[in-house]
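Is thiamine diphosphate placement plausible here? Inputs below.
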Amino acid sequence: MRRTFVVHVEDKPGVLNRVASLFRRRAFNIESLTVGRTEVPRVSRMTIVVDTDDNGAKRLEANLYKLVNVLRVTDLTGDAAVIRDLTLIRVAATQETRTQVMQIVDTFRGRVVDVAPDSLIVEATGTEDKIDGLLGVLQPYGVLEIVRTGRVAMSRGQQSVATEPADAPAEADPGDQVSYSV
Amino acid sequence: MGNMRTGAQILWESLVREGVTTVFGYPGGAILPAYDAMLEYPVRHVLVRHEQGATHMADGYARASGEVGVAVATSGPGATNMVTGIATAMLDSSPIVCITGQVGSRLIGSDAFQETDVTGVTLPITKHNYLVSNVSEVAPTIHEAFYVARSGRPGPVLVDITKDAQQGSAEFVWDGSPVRLPGYRPELRASDAERRRAVDLINGAKRPIIFAGHGVMLSGAMDLVREFAERANIPVAMTLLGIGSFPALHPLNLGMMGMHGEAWVNQAIQEADLLLAFGMRFDDRVTGNVKTYAPNARKIHVDIDPAEFNKNVMVDVTLAGDLSNVLRELLPRVERGDRGVWLDSIAEMKGDSAVRDVQNLPDSGHLYAAHVINDIWRMTDGKAVVVTDVGQHQMWEAQYYHHEKPRSLITSGGLGTMGFALPAAIGAKLARPEAEVWAIVGDGGFQMTMCELATIAQEKVKVNVAIINNGYLGMVRQWQEFFYERRYAATPLLSPDFAKLGEAFGLRSATVSRRQEVEPTVAMARAEPGAVVIDFRVEQEDTVYPMVPAGADLHAMIRRPSPSPIVETADD
Ligand SMILES: Cc1cc2nc3c(=O)[nH]c(=O)nc-3n(C[C@H](O)[C@H](O)[C@H](O)COP(=O)(O)OP(=O)(O)OC[C@H]3O[C@@H](n4cnc5c(N)ncnc54)[C@H](O)[C@@H]3O)c2cc1C
Ligand SMILES: Cc1ncc(C[n+]2csc(CCOP(=O)(O)OP(=O)(O)O)c2C)c(N)n1
Ligand SMILES: [Mg+2]
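Reply from A.M.:
I modeled the complex. C-alpha cells:
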C-alpha cells in the first residue's frame, strides 16, 4: 500500500542523505520524496511516499526516529489530507491544435505559463491521479517534456502536523502516551 | 581570552572530561595536530598495528567495562581501515567513539591527498557521525558524540575533524550539562495497557521461557532478570551475546538457544506457550525458519529500540524501554509460579544429551577443542573474561565455558568478524586490568589480526592467547561437510609455527597437542606475568553439534551422531 509520511528534520548538511540512505539500507523503495523549508527556521519538511504494509510503516517510522536529525515523523496515510503534485508539461501545440489543448488544460484547472510557436508549457497541480489524467489526454498532441515534484501533503482541518520534536527526551518521563508498540 | 586552546587541545580537554583514560590509535598526517597535543594530557595511547585493531580494542574495552571505547585514526586509509570494526560495533550495539582526522576544510571535495568521504562511507554503519570543520564545534560535538554512543541503544559514533579545525584556536568552554537533542528519543516507555497485557500473559503461562539477550547486560538488568525468573520460576535461555547475563550454573539456566544451542533449549522453545524476550533481537541464527518458530507461544518483546519490534518475529506484546525500568514495573505484578511440570519436562528433554562432561572421558590421545576450552573454564573457575573470534571455536566456547558473570564473554555475534578476538582482548584487559583475560581464537582468525601481538608486546598487556589450531577454516569446512559434499574448497589452512611466532614478538609461547599437556600449559600461562601464546593443535575435522542449518526449522537440528565424536570410542 502506498503511504505518505511527513518527516520534519533538522536543516543540516547531509540530512537528506541520511534519510535516503535509511530507506535504501532497510530495503524500502521511495516512490517520491520532496523536501523544503517550513514555517520554523532550520527545520525542513519532507514528504515521502513509499509502498509498504502496516508493519513496514511502523518499523519505518521507528527507524526514522533513530536518525538523530529527525524531529518528527507523521504517517498521513488514512488521515484526511490534502495531497498535491505539481507538474510542468511541455506539450506540442500547433496553430490548429492550440485552442483544443488550452481547453483541456482549462478543464483540468491547469494554466498555460509559457507559449512558443509550436508548444506550450502547462502548469498543473492536483492529486497524482488528476495529473496522470491530464497527461493522458495531452498525450495525443505530443508531450515533449514533463517534470513532476512528487507528492506534498498536509492534513486537513485544524490539526497541523507538529513541527516540533516528539517528546520523550532521555531524562524526562514521557508518560504513557508515548508508545511505539502495536 | 584566558582559555584559548587549539582544536587539538580542545579535543583532548573534551575527551578527558568525558572520562577517557585510554585510546587506541594510529597516527598520520591529518590527525597529527591531535597527536602532538595528546602529549600534554593524561591519556594512555595504545599504538595499534592496524586501525581495524584500534576499533576492535575500543569495542572490547566498551564491552568489558560498559564505558565508551575510543579509537583514533588519520584520514583516508586510516579511517577506511576502521570500517570493519565500526560495523562490528554497530551490529552488536557497542558504544565506541572513533576520531578521524580529515583534510583541511578548504580541500574537502578536491580529492586531496588521503581524502575520503568518511562520514559518507560510515553513514550506514554508525549510530551517528559528524564532520567537524570548525574549531568552535569540537567540544560540543565530542560531548554529543559520547552521549549518543552510550544512550538508548548504544552504538558507534564517528567524529571526523578537519586538520584546520584541529589547528585553529578558540576559547575553550566546556558545557558538561546533559545533552539535549531535539529529535533524539533514546528511551520510550510502554503504555500501561501493554504492561497489563504482559503481566496477564506471564501469570497465565504454563510453559514460559525467558530469553536473556545482550540488552540485559547493556541495561545492567542481571539482578532483575534473576529475581524475575526465580519469582515466577521461569527457565532462562540466552542468546550468544546474552551469555553471562544469567549465571551459567543457576538451576533455571537452560543454556544458549539457536543455531548451535543445545537441543533441549530449542526443543523447549518450540513447545513453549510464552516467550519473554528481554533485550534480544530474534536474529536469524536464533530463530531458524521464522514460519515454524515457536508456533505455540505468545511473545512479549522488551526492547529499548522499537524498530526491533515485529522485524523478524511477529509478537503479541511489545514493551518499549530500558529493560531494567520495564522489569521494575512488571516485577511487583508477577505472581509466584510453580511450573514444576514444565521444568520437569525440560529436564526430560535434556536427558542424556546434557551429559557434556568432557572431563570424565577417557583420554584417547586426541585433543579436542572442547577439552581445551573446558579445561580453561575449570582452571579459571569460570571467572575469566574470554574474548573469542569467529568460527567453530567460538561456538565451543559458548558451549563449554560456563560464564557466571556479565561481560565475561566478549564476541562478535552480529557481524561475525574474524580477527576480532586478539585486539578486543587487548581492549578488555586495559578496561579491566584486574581481570584474567583469555583470547580464544581460530588459526584462521588469528592470522587476520595477529600483528596486534606487537601491540601486546609493546604495551605489555597481559592476555593469554589460546589458538584453537585445527588446520582449517573450520566453521566453513563444517558447512562444506554438511552441505557441499565435503568439497573443501579453500578451507585447508597452512599456518606458521605460532609458538615461534609468539617468541619472535618476545612472548612466552607453547605448543600443545596432547590432552594431558593442556592443564600444565594453562597453569603456566596463568602464572606467567606477561602475555602467553599457546598453539593448541586440535582434532582437524571436528564438528560443532547440534546445528540448525541456516533457515531450517529450529527443531530440525543436526544432532550429535552416536557415538559422539567427542565421546571417543575404543577404535578412535
Ligand atoms: C558463527 C556464529 C554462530 C552463531 N550462532 C548463534 C547461536 O547459535 N545462538 C545465538 O543466540 N546466537 C548465535 N550467533 C550470534 C547471532 O548472530 C547474534 O549476534 C545474537 O543472537 C544476538 O544476540 P542478542 O539479540 O542478544 O544481542 P544484540 O544483537 O546485541 O541485540 C541486543 C538487543 O537488545 C536491545 N537493547 C539494548 N539495550 C537495551 C536496554 N537497555 N534495554 C532493553 N533492550 C536493550 C537492542 O535494541 C537489541 O535489540 C552466532 C554468531 C556467529 C558468528
Ligand atoms: C572477516 C571474515 N571473513 C570470512 C568469514 C567467514 N567465516 C566464518 S567462520 C570462518 C572460519 C574461521 O576459521 P578459524 O578462524 O580457523 O576458526 P575455526 O572455525 O576453525 O574454529 C570463516 C572463514 C568471517 N566470519 N569473517
Ligand atoms: Mg581453524
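Short version: Residues 84 and 126 of chain A are 5 Å apart (CA to CA).
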